[in-house]
């Protein structure tokens, strides 16, 4: 169980569980957003991404998809990838096996009902899998993905520049970047700081000629 809780921050723990934190063969940086779709945050990220010619993967929450299906379609229409973050934003360690199974099925169905196809990639809330949760994800043929760089953009007192400084200077092709396009489960208004940071991160990637790619 210790390895499951340390996997988001310790490469050795993630490796032991077969959980990728980076994708070395991806050909660029994998930019990801959790917790949406959000009525303000998601459109803001989409606008910045469009301006930068960047592509991203959005790990969405089923309960938010059901509230804003049009935004989910907008994500995919813009050329980005939709992935699953769960049906509700709950720590897997607190859920029974049957609850984890139900969450996975409902979350996948929410996406399929809107887009006509289910997700391929999965990331749990807080990046923490329980043994039963990881087993359920794999049993359903989903591929887990954590992250190698994060801006801790959910914090109340952070700033766009601080978020970007955590990510941009040392980023390399194959890195998976974690950001959030919503503030449903974090500090109110945090998506605005993320939008500011995304502009800085995109500029640094462009300066260094590092592409943003989708996981394959």
Question: What does this entry look like structurally?
Answer:
With 216 residues, the protein is α/β, with parallel strands linked by helices. 43% of the residues lie in helices and 11% in strands. It is built from 9 helices and 7 strands; from the N terminus they run ααβαβααβαβαββαβα. It has helices at 2-6, 11-17, 41-52, 62-67, 69-77, 97-115, 131-139, 160-167, 190-207; strands at residues 30-34, 57-60, 81-84, 121-122, 143-144, 149-150, 176-180. The strands form 2 sheets. Strands 3-2-1-7-6 form a 5-stranded parallel beta sheet. A two-stranded parallel ribbon has the order 4-5. Strand 6 (149-150), helix 8 and strand 7 (176-180) form a beta-alpha-beta unit. Helix 6 (97-115) runs parallel beside helix 7 and helix 8 (160-167) crosses helix 9 (190-207). The longest helix has 19 residues, at 97-115. The mean pLDDT is 96.
